[in-house]
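Minutes, project check-in

Agenda point 3 was the complex the collaborators sent over. CS summarized: two entities, 225 residues total, and the question is how they sit relative to each other. Sequences were read into the notes so everyone works from the same version.
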Amino acid sequence: NAGVTQTPKFQVLKTGQSMTLQCAQDMNHEYMSWYRQDPGMGLRLIHYSVGAGITDQGEVPNGYNVSRSTTEDFPLRLLSAAPSQTSVYFCASHRAQANYGYTFGSGTRLTVV
Amino acid sequence: GEDVEQSLFLSVREGDSSVINCTYTDSSSTYLYWYKQEPGAGLQLLTYIFSNMDMKQDQRLTVLLNKKDKHLSLRIADTQTGDSAIYFCAESYGGATNKLIFGTGTLLAVQP
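CS then shared the predicted structure for the full assembly.
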């Protein structure tokens, strides 16, 4: 059972480039989320999805787009990368029941130069 | 708005107990969680506590919840070098969607 798989693990982008961070889960979880982790700031929610075809904004959505065409996949798109988007990005999935907690991917370390 | 606060750093000697503290703001949170992040890895759920409980024990881990003061703590007994990691507390909000808001994380350094 793979859990949550994120690709790539590392990426360097130039300012203005676009790219897609991939996230896939094989646990049939309804909910999926994207977080970014920055030093001293914990994890901040970018976008989340409560099911296929349904997405919503989190705390820091600007500069990012998401879609959820299947239960398994939840890609995060950077439209025009900026140095402020240098961060570690985590995808997570979870069931509706709160006591199961979230399952996280291993992260994508993105540097924008 | 919601805010979850933790101290940034804790250093203990191997074999001692570690206590990591957290304060939260949303009194309607149903569950509170502790996650562990090892270097270069994602977060892993350690334990959780339901909001109507005061304490939960799971092997070396003890979670204490003071709802009146909105204070959560994680005690690790007999701390080992393998416990060195960043520990995040998190509170649930958003009702049925179970969104989480995370603290800033506490780096636990265990000295041999």
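Noted in discussion: The CA atoms of residues 5 and 69 of chain B lie 13 Å apart.
Follow-up: revisit at the next meeting once the mutant set is ready.
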